[in-house]
């Protein structure tokens, strides 16, 4: 069976909330796509991941040449660094919604936010755009010749307009053909709290995932990725 590789953050990873505050089996947005197109989901996404996490995993994890890649692009404020402490994959978040999903290979990278940095003469917005656009372009170059599609998980990344000419040039090189709703995101599609995992958790539950992926399925058929 052809594999669907799921890479991204917690929105991509999915959860076990079949509806708000009601927990059962783990599903991700990729689960709904895999079921629709008779694919085998391989979930390499993880809570807290940044866009550069995807670059690293494309370089280090194993993939079949014929596989299809579903890439969830996280918020531009995140980046990862090599840590002396291994990531605790069994750590419970605000609720049990993320405790029943698949485990990934051992991970020694932690997530930090650019707006937590105190660097001299630091242009925060330009740095965030540079980091995200550069890594999106690297992902596309790494996946050249393979079947893939990407989407935003938290914010509409391509709405951002850089001032730095080099960042502008990087952005212009990003191919939008297989980029689903580049100015919108999964999170923004499910702002009604009936689609939340729990009262204190705005991630999309299975109902919200299904609603969002129903439109995504039609787009996939139209662009003929699968």
Could you characterize the architecture of this molecule?
This protein is of the alpha/beta class and 226 residues long. It has a single domain (3-223), classed as 3-Layer(aba) Sandwich (Rossmann fold), CATH 3.40.50. It is 32% helix and 23% strand. The protein contains 7 helices and 11 strands. The protein has helices spanning 10-13, 29-37, 51-60, 124-142, 165-172, 186-189, 206-223, and strands spanning 3-7, 15-19, 22-27, 40-43, 68-73, 78-82, 109-113, 147-152, 179-180, 196-198, 201-204. The strands form 4 sheets. A 5-stranded parallel beta sheet has the order 4-1-5-8-9, with helices on both faces. It has a two-stranded antiparallel ribbon with strand order 2-3. A hairpin with a 2-residue loop joins β10 and β11 (201-204). The chain is globular, with a radius of gyration of 17 Å. 39% of the residues are buried. The mean pLDDT is 94.
What characteristics describe this protein?
about 230 residues, alpha/beta, Rossmann fold, five-stranded parallel beta sheet, two-stranded antiparallel ribbon, 7 helices, 11 strands, about 30% helix
CATH architecture: 3-Layer(aba) Sandwich
The secondary structure category is alpha/beta
The CATH C-level class name: Alpha Beta
Quote the average pLDDT. Answer: 94
What general form does the structure show?
A: globular
Biggest beta sheet attributes: 5 strands, parallel
